[in-house]
Amino acid sequence: MSKKIVSRSALYYLLCITSLLFISKLAISVDNEIIYSGPGDNKDGYESRDYVTKSLSINERKGEKTNLIKYAEQSQLGLPKLKIPKNNPITEKKIALGKKLFFDRRISLNNTMSCAMCHIPEQGFTNNEIRTAVGIEGRSNLRNAPTIINSAYYKFLFHDAREYSLENQVWQPVLKHSEMGMPSFGFTVKKLELIPGYKNLFNDAFPGEGINVATFSKAIASYERSLISANSNFDKWYFGKNDKAVSAEVKKGFEVFIGKGNCVSCHSIDNDHALFFDNKLHNTGVGYADSMGLLIKNNKTVVQLAPGEYVEVDNNIIKSVNQQKKKNDLGLYDITENPDHRWMFKTPSLRNISLTSPYMHNGVFSSLDDVINFYNDGGVQNELLSPKIKKLNLSKAEKINLKLFLESLVGENINILIADALFQTVGDLTKDDPNWANDKDMGYNK
Amino acid sequence: MYLRNFGISILTAILLTISSFSYADETCMSPYMQKIVGQEDYVYVWTLGVEGLGDEQDKLVTIDVSPKSKTYGKVVSVLSVGGRNEAHHSGLSDDRHYLWAGGLDSNKIFIFDVATNPRKPSLSKVVIDFVEKTGGIVGPHTFYALPGRMMVSGLSNNKDNGGRTGLAEYNSKGEFIATHWLPTDGDLKGANKTGNFADGYGYDIRVQPRRNIMLTSSFTGWSNYMMDFGQMLQDGEAMKRFGNTMVLWDLHSRKPKKVFDVPGAPLEIRCAWGANNNYCFTTTALTSKIWLIYEDKSGEWQAKAVADIGDPSKVPLPVDISITSDDKGLWVDTFMDGKARLFDISDPHNPKQIFEEKIGSQVNMISQSWDGTRAYFSTSLLGSWDKTEDADEQWVKLYDWDQENLKLSHVWTVDFYKEKLGRAHQMRFGAYSLYSSKNSDEEKSVSMLDK
To answer: Is B335 exposed, middle or buried (0-12, 13-18, 19+ CB in 10 A)?
Structure first.
């Protein structure tokens, strides 16, 4: 998928490479392949007064289209063959339609929210810039937006495991008051029928069915199902037996992962593949700490005002502008009402983990270092703490190596998936769309 | 010759008379625009709808502010526009016949006719395809009139909901003309990055036509300005996503020339009016400073911090500012402590605070009258940023200002919650004197009592 830069002078290339190499995660590599992964508005180093912006031009990042179906149909090193539901065979047309819907902001009550508003491609199909998702009209949501990549392998979906298939999962954010806020199934279908273009696309993707509740979710699920990414450096070493694919430090980090760190007890590895999750839910203490207010260390909060500039703000001042009182997040308990399920959350995959900060179900940790330190300290003690969570006593070197191992889990095709997503036009309101202000309403009282 | 001299004398007298006025709110607007001379008749308040209050939607509220009117200090017109669009700023067209008001969330632009009947504005047009036409700009913020044009600054984009954005240029009919992206490291567009930052963020627009310059400031993207304020302050990642730049543009070519480091979210821009006063001010919301952007003796434009506002360590959050017509005073509202402060800016390089008063539990916008003796204040900052419970007062207040004795005297309050209206944000003035030939006799008679 490499995109060749128009031929220019050697000096130009030298300047380009020199000036862009410092752009973490975003540099143009020496073979001129554009790296799309990583925030276009990079804030690495913002903690320091010496911070230098590395912002990229929005309109210059056009992406590049790819035929995604191969990722769903062909196995990648490190992942098992994907099971496609019999009632939703995957096709190129469904993927293309699902992708268009995924990026269409008109699929929300006020035409401002799309799936991609929280699952931002260049940010690992999550949102690196905020801890918990912001929905329609700024409504607060309790949880960090999980990545879509490899979500097709999950037995359960959502942090609390309340859904069991991508097809069923699709409708929840669309109809939820705090996410996309569409008023009903029927209204959504009707609106899609009135937006120019969708009728034909649905008829092509679902002959004889057209636009309905089922085809809408099948299309988006098909796109999500095609976002598969493995064949990482770790996979090339561990499953591909390429000894040079990773460094000695990564290998040592893997030893910590499966040994002293016992991370593998939840982030599972099988003989011929590694999902890095166990399809189970666990209490690590993060949810408990949040509910019990243990994350608030004192009556002040350190707030950053500018690069390298911080102040301590009294929590009463913060409370004075905290309009949306959040309920406590009790995880699986909210689904089962079983008191033993309090603060249990689904194990996430670790694939591409270095791209999907912030971490944990509530985004409380901004870096992998924070996560490793949390588990090294034994989580947060509570009566329901998973017995797998114990103090680890990792050395500094072991923690560094463990992090390097985690960073080796970035899928080989991640750049391709992101480039393909960037190529997709974002759906925004046009003069031809249904809207009262456009004299093209939904047909009421006519 | 006599007639010619007489004419010149009359002209001089008129100019002197005009120049003796304190332009106040009028000075905050485009120099290309008509000015109200005398008593303003109406204040148009772009108001946020609130769930559970009245019809719950955004609206343009018209308050009669003509002192001799029977409905003085009362709401005389309410025009609901559908939805909670995150109503924020508004701006008058160059002929002052139309008021453009934006929704930072919905991206709709509502263009109101305020000339046909200034007492009861009507909705002339709704621009619904702002994001599509501009190629992805989100959050139409400032509406700044240029001749035959409306320049609209964005706050965000439809790709990552962050702060990288651009300016959108429209003609007076509300037709899209061009997008001008803010310079980023990836594409500086020929601008000189003078410091460490070229974040590409946007917020306000002001110009000094005689210097052929345009200035823009920088705030934050959709994810932050729509987020619960208390939640955001505790989110370390979110707090990294504020603008730290101002951009100097070539006004005529619309090309960025310089990117200045102005850390801490520089918001409102106000430019001096004096013939030789080649400078503008801004205030940084997070770092609580007044910044001066000025042309130095060598003809180069520079930016520097010139004063603190309150105690920056307590984050008073300076929001709206207003410069006086003689370039000697700068009003600064601070949201968190609800205060209005007046700085003496006679020496623009050394502003000194000379007055402060608490207006309410929260205060955002300030609009002074033409003659500088009246100041209107309003409350709302953003739908998810306003204070809670008892501190969530929502009103427009009028104060008389005594410049000699440095005294603000409260005149009246319109309680926007009691009236079931919503949250009062930006205020713009209307007057029959601008369109006197178009009014009904009854309405004109109300107006003429003041003339």
So the answer is: buried
Give the residue-averaged pLDDT of A286-315: 91
What count of CB pairs under 8 Å joins A to B? Answer: 222
> At which residue do the structure tokens 């509406």 appear?
B143
Cβ contact, residue pair B163, A122, below 8 Å: no
What is the distance of C-alpha B26 from the center of its chain?
10
Q: How far is A45 from chain B (nearest CA, A)?
A: 10
Mean pLDDT of B255-272: 97
The pTM for the full model equals 0.91
The distance of A186 to chain B (nearest Cα, Å) reads 21
Question: Å from B108 to nearest chain A CA?
Answer: 9
Residue of A35, A44, A112, A370 for testing the chain B interface, max B β-carbons within 10 Å = A112
The span from the CA of A75 to the CA of A230, in Å, is 9
DSSP-derived secondary structure for B10-57: HHHHHHHHHHHS--GGGGGS-TTS----S---EEEEEEE--TTSTT-S
> Distance, in angstroms, between A96 CA and closest chain B CA?
19
Helices (H), B271-369: none
A110–B239 CB contact, under 8 Å: no
CB-based contact A60 B187, cutoff 8 Å? yes
DSSP A315-337: HHHHHHT--SPPPP--BTHHHH-
Residue A428 contacts B, CB cutoff 8 Å: yes
- pLDDT over 70 (residue B446): no
Judged against a pLDDT cut of 80, whether residue A427 lies above it is answered with yes
Give me the mean pLDDT over the B141-167 stretch: 97
Q: Looking at residue B50, what is its pLDDT?
A: 97
pLDDT at A26: 38
Please list every residue in chain B whose beta carbon sits closer than 8 Å to the beta carbon of residue A123.
160
Average of pLDDT values for B3-27?
41
* B31 contacts B209 by C-beta, under 8 angstroms: yes
Task: State whether the Cα torsion A221-A226-A229-A235 is positive or negative.
Answer: positive
| Three-point CA angle B195, B201, B206, nearest 5° | 90
The distance of Cα A84 from the centroid of its chain, to the nearest Å, equals: 21
Question: What is the mean predicted confidence (pLDDT) over B179-199?
Answer: 98
CB A58 within 8 A of CB A31: no
pLDDT band at B23 (very low <50, low <70, confident <90, very high): very low
What share of chain B has pLDDT > 90, as a percent? 84
Q: Is A14's pLDDT higher than 70? A: no
Strand order in the sheet with B279-284: B266-271, B279-284, B289-295, B301-308
pLDDT of residue B365: 97
Band the pLDDT of A327: cuts 50, 70, 90.
confident
Q: Do A320 and B388 touch (CB under 8 A)?
A: yes
Q: Measure in Å the smallest separation between the Cα of B286 and chain A Cα atoms.
A: 5
How distant, in Å, are the alpha carbons of A317, B33, B108, B204, B205 from that of B91? 32, 11, 14, 12, 11
- Between chains, do A137 and B186 touch, taking CB under 8 Å as contact? no
Helix axes A92-102, A198-205, angle to 10 degrees: 150
Asked whether A95 and A226 are in contact (CB, 8 A), the reply is yes
Whole-number mean pLDDT of chain B?
91
pLDDT band (50, 70, 90) for residue A24:
very low
Residues of B in contact with A366 (CB under 8 A): 236-237
* Closest by Cα among B430, B332, B414 to B378: B414
Cβ contacts of A188 within 8 Å, gap of 6 or more:
A107, A174, A175, A182, A216
CA distance A62 to A65: 10
Q: For each of the domains in chain A, give its residue range(s) and CATH number, in order of start.
A: 1-64 (no CATH), 69-229+414-438 (1.10.760.10), 245-407 (1.10.760.10)
